[in-house]
Amino acid sequence: MSDLSITIPNFGVQTPTQKPPIEMLREAARTLKQQTGGVVEGSVFTSNPGRSNLFRHTFYLRARSLNDYTYPLFYVWHNADLYPANLLEAGEPQSNAQPCKDDTELRDKLNSIFASHGTRQLVEALMAQANT
Question: Is pLDDT of 61 > 80?
Fold first, then answer.
């Protein structure tokens, strides 16, 4: 009889050469929570649309004290290679998606979203309502 055993390689934990998008989004969520004293949090939901090889991350603003109000701020999607990743602000047409060739480009575009007038206004409105 022949040996029918399957050999699985030891994958181990490798240090990625670039920071994965999900790690950046989780980092942003933690920072937002710290800077708002926990009043407004970031929440990241990851899905696999259409059973494809895509990872689609939705970044939500969340205010627990407002009946767990959530607002999708932006979406990031990529395949298993991590980069290029695509970034799309919520409410924008798909054609406005911004490609990010690496983690530096993604970080710069995320910083722009968080610094934008619209994001600041929304976070401040959530904080004002939550603190009443």
Answer: yes
pLDDT at 3: 67
- CB under 8 Å, gap of 24 or more: what pairs does 43-48 form? 43/70, 46/22
Number of domains, the chain:
1
Residue 30 maps to a domain: yes
**Residue 114 maps to a domain:** yes
Residue 55 · residue 34 · CB < 8 Å: no
pLDDT for residue 5 = 81
Span of 2-6, 40-44, 105-109 with lowest mean pLDDT? 2-6
Nearest-angstrom CA–CA distance, 61 and 55: 20
Structural domain span for residue 67? 21-130
